[in-house]
Amino acid sequence: MTEAVATKTAETPGGTAQHGLQAHSDGGWDFGAPVQTRSARFTSTDVADFPTVTGREANWKFTPVAELGTLLDGELDGSQPSDDASGIDGLSLEWIDRTSELIGRAGTPEDRAAANAWTQFEKALYVNVSGEHTDAITLDRRGFGTEARAAHTVIEAAPQARAVVILKHTGPAHLTENVEVVVGEGAQLTLVSLQQWDEGAIHLSSHFAQVGRDASLKHIVVSLGGGIVRVNPTVHLNSEGGNGEALGAYFADAGQHLEHQVYMDHNAPHTRSRVTYKGALRGEGAHTVWIGDVLIRNSASGTDSYEQNRNLVLSEGTRADSIPNLEIETGDIAGAGHASATGRFDDEHLFYLQSRGISEEEARRLVVRGFLLEVIQQIGDADIEAELQAAIEAELTESAA
Q: φ and ψ at 168, to 5 degrees?
């Protein structure tokens, strides 16, 4: 096991008191100070540093934590999956020991599930991309099974590299994992995480990215399958000229919980970020969660940032939670904004299509397809885009049945 790395913050376990907050002389307070900024959250690679999750925490309050059990608190199988990296061409790929210096460069867990995975994984899958790849590189991740597992993946794009890397998740899973992404100077990396799990699969995934000088990361999440899916990307723009795009598309049907918590951290001059997540919900108990945090630090002059989330409600009995947060510590920025909207079909769109002889049901399907494909078409690979279009069509057909 490697030595745990922990950062202590205001009134977290073992931490120091928040400035200006002290106990009264007539008795101490028995609760901690609220964390005032996203960057002040407690982080650690050791699960023992985190308190038990109650579901009242800011980053867990929308999640069905009672159904996560072992992934939060129990023993996990951290061994190497049998076929986690099958069918790979055009890049360097190896399993590295948890003590490798290649691990821990992109970020540190902010929650107990991620820390539990970090504490118990045995080896990490290291993917190194160099040169320019015109075809997408797909990692077929389908060997996890139904036992509670931990996993760790490190994806590195060498300076000036160009590539599209797809993490394709299918089959059964009961998985908590961390994915580290390091984008070298001047590199352009598109990382796509596709969740097409079997019904009932549980997948908790924390992504951490470091984007180099004048480099660009396009991070795309498409969540369609699974029972509980929670993919949380964090992008650190710590070098001048870094660009981060976080895009997401999701379709939740009856009883399905799809959650995405996105964090864009601007910590260098002239950085840029764009966040666009779009989702559709249909069926009793369908639940989606999107939380978007953008932090523009005092050191990030000239920052240009915008985040948005749109949800399309297709039936009664669904719930979409959407929370954009924007923190700005400097007045010297190029622009910053956020938006969130959740609603039903636009009647004018439906009327327009029906006036041209299209049935109401087909008109609704066309609207949903167009709504989600705006994100999927950003992948840049025709084959995977066609596959996902077919998957969305299947979701719409099944939901309408």
A: -105, 115
Task: Determine the Cα–Cα distance for residues 79 and 147; give it in Å rounded to an integer.
Answer: 12
The residue among 192 and 39 whose pLDDT is bigger is: 192
* Residue ranges per structural domain of the chain: 6-19+36-344
* Torsions phi, psi for 239 (to 5 deg): -125, 145
Residue by residue, DSSP assigns 12-53 as: STT-PPPTT---BTTB--SSPPPP-SGGGS-EES-GGGSPPP
What would you measure as the largest C-alpha separation in the chain, in angstroms? Answer: 75
Say what the pTM is.
Answer: 0.88
Mean pLDDT to the nearest integer, 72-80: 95
The number of beta carbons lying within 10 Å of the beta carbon of residue 317 is 13
Contacts of 93 (CB under 8 A, 6+ apart): 85, 125, 126, 127, 128
Give, as one character, the DSSP assignment of residue 387: H
Residue given tokens 């001048």 in the structure block: 240
**In the prediction, which pLDDT does 49 show?**
97
Write down the residue that tokens 């100077």 correspond to.
185
pLDDT beyond 80 at 289? yes
304 residue type, one letter:
D
* Torsion angle (degrees, nearest 10) of CA 363, 368, 374, 377: -90
Element (H, E) at 291: strand 287-296
By the 10 Å C-beta count (0-12 exposed, 13-18 middle, 19+ buried), 62 is classed as buried
Pure H helices in 26-146: 70-73, 112-120
Structure token digits, residue 45: 């690679």
Distance of CA 72 to the CA centre of its chain: 18
Mean pLDDT of 232-257: 97
Distance, in Å, from the CA atom of 281 to the CA atom of 253, rounded to the nearest integer, reads 6
Taking CB atoms within 8 Å and a gap of at least 24, the contacts of 325-329 are: 325/38, 325/291, 325/292, 325/293, 325/294, 326/294, 326/296, 327/37, 327/38, 327/293, 327/294, 327/295, 327/296, 328/296, 329/295, 329/296, 329/297, 329/298, 329/300
